[in-house]
Amino acid sequence: MHSLETMTILLLWLLVYHLSVLNPAQASKCLLQNEFEPGLMANGDFVIGGIFPLHYNQEMPDLNFTYKPGPVKCNGFDTRAFRWAITMKLAVEEINKRVDLLPNYTLGYKIFDSCAYPLTGQRSAVAVLNGPNELESPLCADAAPLLAVIGESGSAQSIVVSRILQPFGIPMISYFSSCACLSDRREFPTFFRVIPSDAYQVKAIAKLLRHFNWTWIGVIRGDHEYGRFALQGLLKELEGTGICVAYQKMIPLLYDRQKALEIIHVMSHSTARVVVVFSAEGELTPFLRDYMEQNVTGIQWIASEAWVTSSVFAGSEFDPFLGGTIGFGIRQGQIPRLKEYLTTVNPERYPTNPLVYELWGALYGCSPSWSNLSSHLPSCTGKETVRLQYSAYLNTSSPRISYNVYKAAYAIAYSLHNLIYCTPGKGPFSNSTCANAPHIYPWQLQQYLQEVSFTISGEKVNFDMKGDSIPSYDLINWQRGSAGNIEFINVGMFDGALESGQELVIKEEAIMWPGHQTEVLVSVCSNSCAPGFRKAVRRGQPLCCFDCVPCDSGKISNETDSLDCIACSEDYWSNADGTVCIPKVVEFLSHDAMGLTLTVIAVAGACLTLAVFSVFLYYKNTPVVRINNSELSFFILLSLTLCFLCALIFIGEPTSWSCMLRHTAFSITFSLCISCILGKTLVVLAAFTATRPGNNLMKWLGPTQQRIIIFCCTLIQVLICTVWLVASPPFPYRNTKYQQSKIILDCSVGSDLAFWCVLGYIGLLACVCFFLAFLARKLPGNFNEAKYITFSMIIFCAVWLAFVPAYVSSPGKFTTAVEIFAILASSFGLLLCLFTPKVYIILVKPEKNTKQHLMGKDK
């Protein structure tokens, strides 16, 4: 585009050079190759230009270079753009009537049609530089005093026009060009605008998308700088927001129906139900016609300010397809007398203006009878009164673009006024000088435009250093009106001057969504992940397309659409839903069902042992009790009672004292019990061998010696336990490693060596007992106690040998339960094996409770 404009300027200068140098005969005569007259014009002391898209499409001439090509033909009269042009005319007339603004000076204007096309806009820019009429003041004559230009509508046209005006230093104020690229002061030093930059519009659209959780969108743009820069700005704003673009499509500048149908096919088959459109109404009009022909519905349109208030789409036929459209429009303002002024425009008052004829054709479908325009419309008088009916031309209830044109004209007037009435010696130019009125240069006016500040209709108007105005938008919603047409309803606003987070205000209850629904349409690639899940991105797809994966055990996500799960702290675990960290279950052998069962069994064992003790005590003088040292039997019964009771220490929450007591009490009581059994075994062995001649073994195993043996054997275990408690005692231990979802409260043995030494010593005593009892198992007598001791030691050793692997492999509280079970099983084994036969004889077979029977001499 830039090279095209540069080439045009070079061709113009080459033409001048050719006429003046190569053909001196025609140097004083410039020949116009074509005519391009202004649509509206008026003379004045200072002239400003206006460029408006009075038609919204164009027909290119045949360029086969065999004959002179005709001009570009503009089609599709745009009544809304004509209203903008009339607004500029009204503003100039108002300014000329004011006594406080530019007194003694008048403004003139020249208004040209850009046809909503850059090439025609380029031609308008060249034409506006010339005199009031190209035929009367050709290129070689003196230029009119053109100080500024109000234009253009589309950003693509404004880029072209601004670059053509730039070498002449002529400032340009756009009323509808919002491309962020135009804020570059190095490329467009003479460009101003009274519409916010798209840099703010894309911020507003991004906030709108985030507000309604539309994370999966499509984008359609026009084939021009406005669409390209708006798309780039939107993509930049969407970075890191979780919003993804499903597709990006471009409407060709020269409309191609086949390409349009391809875009519509993508739209209808995409899961993205929200479509953002950066386009002008010119290329969008035929696209939407094809869109409606394909009968596509259910799409939420997000309109850019370029078409969100376009009356071209206000007809009832658009409602089923575009109803519910939402977008940011230019803030509306008030223009006094605009409606009345528009009604004064008619063919009778402007009999030679072809634009007014086209307006009449658009409003009434007829052409004035005296019109020389070729028209297939029926003729009319041209005196019809413009009715206050709904039309793009008469829609002045909420002027937006017209209001921008109005502000632009007044910005030029106030700047020119400040320039003319500059205080000498306080001017902005070199040596603090002022401009020489009325010989004013455009670049001097630009200095004042940059600093102008005034209030109109209650709004303050000024420009920043980039030539931009204050960023502010109305949020517009397309709703069905009472007549079936589309009405543009204000449902909120965006003010870029406010603090972050407060810019966007939305009245959601006032919004009507597509299909006349009251609920927000959903547009996501993947449904939101509930708390307890995390997002897992699908390979090769945008970030918005993901699967919801449950959080691993011990991790949670307490927010929707969490990217990752958070690990709980050491003492906490995730709940079943994975949404909250809850304290871990503290597990120990408590007085639950298992603990109570073991408690009952232990108490029952102790009671049973005491019952046997009572029986033995009652029958202490009978042979069965006395036959093998009744004192040892009582010691064994008391130690077994302690063995049963020490199991109770293992039940309950471990503490420092219980941990030290449970292992030492268990080891000492069992050592005492096995020591007593060892003493009994020695007595049995000595008693049955004492009958042999010369055997004096019994005198070494009297009651005193037996007590010494028991004391010494038990003392060894006491010493081991003492060293254990001093060096590395057992202590309470919170085990969080074995089972991550629980905290296992247990007693750490402190020293593994000491623990196994204690068990090993008990095992050693049991093995010695077993060996000695095994030797005496076949000694004569009806009641050989050695056989029962042998059997009891077999059971004892079997229980504790089985205990070792079970103890090592059992988790949590079951480790303690296994240890208690071994204590109880071995205790019951000793009790039953050693004392059941004696109790049976005492209580059931008293006739056998004689010395002769027990010695086997009753036969």
TrEMBL record:
Keywords: Cell membrane, G-protein coupled receptor, Glycoprotein, Membrane, Receptor, Signal, Transducer, Transmembrane, Transmembrane helix. GO terms for molecular function: G protein-coupled receptor activity. Its main location: membrane. InterPro entries: ANF_lig-bd_rcpt, GPCR_3, GPCR_3_9-Cys_dom, GPCR_3_9-Cys_sf, GPCR_3_C, GPCR_3_Ca_sens_rcpt-rel, GPCR_3_CS, GPCR_3_vmron_rcpt_2. The keyword Glycoprotein applies. It is found in: Cell membrane. CDD domains: 7tmC_V2R_pheromone, PBP1_CaSR. GO terms for cellular component: plasma membrane. Belongs to the G-protein coupled receptor 3 family. This is Extracellular calcium-sensing receptor isoform X1. It comes from Danio rerio (Zebrafish). The gene is olfcv3.
